[in-house]
Amino acid sequence: MIKELQLRISLKEEERSDILVQKASHILDIDKEDITGVKVLRKSIDARKPKIIFNYKVAVYIREVLPKTSEYQFEYKDVSKAKPIHIIGFGPAGMYAALRCIELGFKPIVLERGKNVKDRRRDLRAINQDHFVNEDSNYCFGEGGAGTYSDGKLYTRSLKRGDVRRIFENLVFHGATDQILVDAHPHIGTNKLPKVVQNIRETILKYGGEVHFETRVTDFIIKNNKIQTIQLNNNEEMPANRVILATGHSARDVFYLLHNKEIALEAKSFAMGVRVEHPQHIIDAIQYHCSGDRHELLPAASYSLVQQVNERGVYSFCMCPGGFIVPAATANGEVVVNGMSPSKRNNLFANSGIVVEIDVNKDLPKYEQFGALKGLEYQKNLERMAFTAGGRSQIAPAQRLTDFVEGRLSASLNPTSYQPGLNSAPLHSLLPKLIGSRLRKGFEAFGQKMKGYYTAEANIVGVESRTSSPVCIPRNEHLEHPQIEGLFPCGEGGGYAGGIVSAAMDGERCAEAAIKNL
Ligand code: FAD
């Protein structure tokens, strides 16, 4: 017999390894010996009150063998001689598109401008230490895309739970911890992601797919509104009739290429702001109502904040507890910050993007001349401003949080996890009013919501500009570009995803669409 239960476990009880069996036997009024296993289905922490509670949803197996089950089977077949589907970009969207092609009996040919995860590391070191950005291999470009050197948070607002579970199980199939199947806020961590990504590549190769690194798509040859050929690295040509375009939101050259070819694009609303960094112990103290170190069973605390300011949302984005701020620029001459964390989230800092919604139809009147690329140009300008204010390297402009809100230059800055370093700059006057004034009001409101959050011990670091794509590549109900037969815009770059899981789900959907009638 199997019984499902909701269990509430206190912090003290959580210390006991047999607590779930103990509680289940008590609630069900049966002997502990009759319980053959307790499977955790869901786990979350409720820290709203000083008495912290672990909420478990469990399946209790009574005199029944605990099965090793997954809801999905991943059956890959040899596709080496099958019809090809070309996939541009090997981020979460491209990876999952390739896996789905194999499941459906088609051969994915992946073209990725960046390097494999191992070689990519050297280029990340060069950004951090030498302040040199390789424009094909960086925190956004390379095997696994922007998702590899990230926090690996797997939270998504998607309501298609079945699809989300499938994505998670496939990550577990490729080496991620099965803890992600039960945690309310699952994450993998940047130290574990490269192995998962590498395993996905190995599956693709094993079953006859192809993955070409250091292969940038530089042109599309289109005849009679139908894709015919893709150009690689400005010299080679490859015939292709079904192309999944999963190049992410940072591939500006791809947006320019499409725009110059008069392939329809649309401006899309997005968000920009700064990253705020607190000592982790401050966030722990607020969220766990403690004064010293957090209890060892508690993970580094996170937060999620939102405030409406002058008709625009100001909100936290990609919060990384126990993490690092990283330089996420994709070209020299710009400074862009983002965040990542290791699986243990045991670094001393908590960072989060704090961004303001930008309504492209109302907020950028001076950029109308750029048409569909107006948001992109605005984004670029802000990143150039950050480059100049930081001192023309990957050093980022920064300010103490309280100095930013109160409008004065910081005489000194707090310690930071951002490796290239920080330069004190008057971000309160450098950021456009549209963003700066709303951020200031937003931070004040956040200080009311989380007592202790508004502190001189926090820095803000500029700029957090790549939250989502400022451009949408349109597609019809068959997920194909309305003008170009055979071109399937996919993932975050097309404007169809906002994170690892939604990009992966869109990759699967585009693979299913691309193979139709082939
Ligand atoms: P991308 O991941 O951007 O992949 C696009 C790929 O296309 C890249 O590998 C790029 O090199 C390649 N490419 C681009 N142009 C070309 C070309 N012309 N030819 C060939 N290849 C090309 N999301 C979360 O859900 N959780 C997180 O914790 C999280 N943390 C993040 C931390 C950081 C530092 C960053 C930068 C992002 C983070 N994100 C996170 C966002 C997440 O990574 C993206 O939403 C996701 O990767 C988008 O997937 P994608 O496949 O659509 O595009």
> Considering DSSP H and I runs of 4 or more, what fraction of the residues is helical?
25-40%
Low-confidence segments, ≥5 residues, pLDDT <50? none
Biggest sheet strand order reads: 13-14-17-12-20-18-19
Cofactors, ions, other ligands: flavin-adenine dinucleotide
CATH topology of the largest domain: FAD/NAD(P)-binding domain
Helix-and-strand structural type: alpha+beta
Instruction: Compute the number of strand runs.
Output: 22
Mean of pLDDT: 96
CATH class of the largest domain, named Alpha Beta
Shape designation: globular
Tally of alpha and pi helices: 14
The second-level CATH architecture of the largest domain is: 3-Layer(bba) Sandwich
Domain FAD/NAD(P)-binding: 85-253
Protein name: FAD-dependent oxidoreductase
Domain FAD-dependent protein C-terminal: 269-467
Organism: Mariniflexile soesokkakense
